[in-house]
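quick one, 1018 residues, struct below
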Amino acid sequence: HPLLAPLRAAGHAPALCRLRGLRENATMAAFVQSSPAVLREAPVFRLASAAAVPAAATAAPSLVAAGTPALIVGAGAAVAAAASRRPARRAAKKSARFAVATATKANETTNVQEAWRKYTGSWEVHKFGGASLNDAALYKVCGELLRSESNRNGPDGNNVPTSAIVSACGGMTDELVSVVTTSILDPTEAEKKMQATAQRQIDILLELVPGKPELTDPVIANIRNDANGVLAMLTAVKLMRGVPPQMLELVAGLGEVWSAQTLAAYLQFAGEPCEWLDARDILIVPETDGGLGEKGQAIDTIVPLWEETSALLQGWWEKKFGTSGGAKAPFVIVTGFVCSTSSGRPTTLKRSGSDYSATIFAKLLGASSVTMWKNVNGVYTADPRRVPDAFCIPQLTFDEAMELAYFGGQVLHPSAMIPCIEGRIPVLVKNVFNPSHPGTRVYGRGDAWLRWDDQDDPIDPVMPVKALTSIEKIALVTLSGASFLGTHGVARRMMEALSSVSVNVILTSQGSSEHSITVAVDESQADIAAQSIEQAFSVELSRDSEIRVKCRKACSILAVIGEGMKNTTNISGRFFSALGKAKCNIVAIAQGSSERNISAVVDREDLSRALRAAHAGFTLSKVIVSVGIIGAGKVGTQLMDQLASFQLRKEAKNEKIPALIDLRGLSLEVRAVCDVDKMLLAEHGLPLNNILTGSDKVCNLEQLFAGLPKEKGAENDIRLVDTDMTAFEEFLNTKRIPHKIIVDCTASEEVADMYEGWLKRGINVISPNKKMGAGSLDRYRRLMEIKRDSEVMWFYDSTVGAQLPIISMLHDVLQTGDSISLVEGSLSGTFGYILDKLERNPEMKFSEAFVGAQAADLLEPDPREDLTGQDTARKALILARELGLELELEDVQVESIVPAGFGSATTPESWEELLAMLRSSTDDLVAAKMKESKDKGEVLRYISKIDVKAGTVTVGLRSVSRESTFGTLREYETVVQVVSERYTPTTPLVLRGAGAGSMVTASGVFATMLRLSRRLGS
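---
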């Protein structure tokens, strides 16, 4: 090793110490070169990059002469091994676990195990932002979430050692900053603000921990002492007529200090062992300039002094918990954002630095994971506020996450990834309000020579671009001139000029043909950037009128990011083509040397349109949808048959029909089908075109699996297993396919109860099952709220009228500003068929027509639902709720054709019993009503009426004119007529067609599936 020669020459004996490789901070070269005195104070010093080796070798003799206690080396061979191929790297890691260094006194360095590592299991770190801690109820949510996570999967029945890093209560930091800035002009108002801010935190604490003064009084005393300390400083602010940045940092960090004490008090109130840790006493950083920075800004990384921080943490831990460890670890609540300099001055990790606090303490604790709890489900493919179809990304590498952070993605702070890269700690981004959602996992490296052995994120060829992000407010500053052609040092001089005035360059684009260099800077720095360049090139500008410095404001940067871009052709073509089709002018472009980022500068007014266009361009090329079908009965079988026909049409590539052009980029993979007893799971989709042949029989999954070609089954890993709805969902919810749809073809109340969980976990639902739309009003409201507030969808159009667009028609009428007052309809295909048969065949009995309806595949799985009118009532209630009537099924007035108390009617024996009861109790009754209607020259129909103004829904038999809309119905036709301000009673809006039977119901479901799939892709 390069260090050994000068050390041996100094006469020092070698000692063994652990090789740290690439997992330490990479700033040691500067330390060795500029601050050798630091090494004299540190018992251990680590080198982490090859760049540090030459400087260290030069400094080594003087360091040894100065009596440096120890030197641990982690460069040279480790870097060389890392740069080689992966098998060689693995061998190097195994064979080079130790490196030779020197020590003047080898026995002075002892490896004392940190006290926090003596508990059973690895630590997990959780971080909560201000939006998750806005009031007492949210503090409780976070506290209970910590308890739940700690009790989950603990080793040997014990809890998982858990620490939480907390931000200030929502808006608290801004309130504290406002206190200080207000004091410049109005100290009295600033004092009022300070008291109100402190009281807000106290009120939250008292609401969260009621009746426990022994827990709340110490916290309240601390808050009031802090507030009084701030008030004492405000006089100085008034006198100075300005706010020192160090003072601003001190005051702004109080929100985190109060927040940590509040959450710790709640956990103690809940009976948990818990302590709060003031990071200002533990986390030590080098001396820095004051100031908070901007939210989400990619500022220079503040590197902690790891050795000092670890030693202070050890001392704090031994004081609070001793050194014995134990089975049950205490909760440790840590203040985010704040820290102290090596001189003891309180400072901060700058705005949005709580994420960095979390990963710093995760590395210190040797944590197995860091979970960033946000108010979104994870890291999205784009900003959902600008791209409504954006969806959660299952997995990112740290390199992708850093690119996103640098280019404006504020879900993760840029600095936060560094400790986790050094410690190989996975970062999970999850939703505190939806903890069951898997969220986004950030782990691993992107470049092949840096990839880790335990990475499990193969590049997806279908989705080479992981995400799109943007920086909204930037300006372009361009230096151009023909005389610069072939001139050396122009770029260097330009960058030095910008650096001299502390302007951060976000993007650089250089075109030699136009002899120009363009940089993108924050719009607030545009003028000073242009002035600094003009000053640096003042001589050239005075001599050549063609040399110019131009500044273009009101621009935005749009970036597409993904590891798969390196190995995929035409990424740039698709990107720029999408922007071109959206009529977005590209002002400048740049591609990073890592090939995981392509950036374009567009006019700010075009940013939203550009984001949507690029998002569509990278997902519409081939939209894959994972489909799961629950219920292999008549509707489910028909749906699979129609999906098989769809696959055949796709393979035929018949795109001459305009309606089929939209489907050319769509792939529907039926990955799971289940019935009551069995479920069929196919990793890459069931080959339905090889299985179904247009049979009108009900599908039997065991027979279907048995008929599957053996080689096909082996290729697709198709399995037949017992039905388990949890396993069904987990299998369908694959990370490989971003879009998932569950189709509920049952009439089950239990399956309807699962919709809420599916939607929360990002799975879309299509349902011909009426039990949800006409079920409990509270459950219906919850589902509609989830649907409204998230990107997932629940479609139920086929519950009424099968493929007839009745519900979408009502939506269109209402959304265009019309007001509906009355809706009437013949919604029961069963009664439509029976009454038409009785009218045409006067000698036919009701029970005989009922048998014909069964043969025509019109009955519900339980025929009593038809006879009692409950099925029709559910359809009418679904339409009524679409019109704004908040009613329960019991509120619908229903006329039943048959008396109550039929018993079970789902087996052959009970079917005969049902027919016998119809013959004895119903045939004559219906015949009498038919005769009465005929004597009036009318016909009998089973009609639903929704009176919006009266707020009522009725269902029953009605005698109508033969020439009316209802009187002309034939067989199982469905008809709906709407009366509104635009469609009067004399000219109502009428929708009519076949609206019953498994075939048309499956067609309605399939049409909805195609419509939803196109929407997911666009």
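The mean pLDDT is 80.
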